[in-house]
Design brief:
By secondary structure, the protein is an alpha/beta fold. The protein has 10 helices and 10 strands. The strands form 2 sheets. Strands 1, 3, 4, 6, 7, 8, 9 and 10 form an 8-stranded mixed β-sheet that branches. Strands 2-5 form a two-stranded antiparallel sheet. Strand 9 and strand 10 form a beta hairpin.
């Protein structure tokens, strides 16, 4: 089983790994586009105004542009430790020990606008690029990623169940045939349900932790739902789509 996480806008600074080596990352088929995007971001960083427009930044966030300028030389850290935010706080991978930590390292992956697909241990620098970013004079990222990323994800899905926790814009980079998708809804006392926005990430992070560390090897959506229920989550299933239901 692979649990595919969305990235986060926020990234931890620093790291103790060597500078970026694209050929050391998972899925060498993606190296060409990764190299193009890294070069484009480094070049764009020389023009702060253009960078702000392309990346949706304010002048107060120019530190993000400096990160992009240093992509070739900055230290790296494992992907699962690079990303921060609500989902990653709920996942709390650093607290896993022994066999649970080993399973998480093997099962967790991240969908990235810059790197396409990262396994938990892939070493990457801090960067700024979102799935919705508009790089000057270039097609949208979904148009660029889909032809190369979709076959990679499809090959993985042939041999392993993929639980896709990516948000819509990242899922649009490449669909995954046969994957299990997950929604989160809040249920009011009168039965009304509304989509959960901010805390959607926290509930997905908790599910990711359960799935990453379980001894079970689920083969389908029903088995994933059963694991989540044993962990105390209220989960409904409609074919390959799971819905986590929480109190409003």
């Amino acid at each position: 089983m692979i649990v595919l996480l969305p990235p986060s806008e926020t990234k931890r600074a620093g790291g103790d790994g060597p500078p970026l080596q694209l050929d050391a990352l998972t899925a060498p088929e993606l190296t060409g586009l990764r190299a193009e995007l890294v070069a484009e971001l480094v070049g764009l960083a020389a023009d702060p105004e253009a960078s702000r427009a392309a990346l949706g930044l304010s002048a107060a966030q120019d530190g993000e542009i400096e990160r992009n300028a240093a992509l070739y030389t900055a230290p790296t850290a494992p992907a699962i430790h690079r990303y921060t935010g609500v989902l990653y706080e709920a996942l709390d991978v650093d607290s896993l020990r022994g066999a649970s930590a080993a399973r998480a390292g093997a099962r967790l992956a991240v969908g990235s606008a810059l790197f396409g697909l990262l396994r938990a241990t892939d070493p990457v620098p801090a960067y700024r690029l979102s799935a919705t970013s508009k790089l000057p004079g270039r097609p949208g990222l979904a148009r660029r990623w889909r032809p190369v990323l979709e076959p990679v994800l499809a090959e993985i899905a042939e041999s392993e169940l993929v639980v896709d926790l990516r948000s819509g814009s990242y899922a649009a980079l490449a669909p995954i045939p046969g994957s299990v998708s997950v929604d989160v809804v809040a249920e009011h006392a009168d039965g009304r349900r509304v989509s959960v926005s901010h805390f959607n990430k926290a509930h997905k992070g908790r599910l990711a932790r359960v799935l990453a560390s379980t001894r079970a090897e689920p083969g389908d959506a029903a088995a994933v739902a059963a694991i989540a229920r044993r962990a105390g989550m209220r989960v409904e299933r409609d074919d390959r789509r799971l819905t986590i239901v929480v109190d409003a």
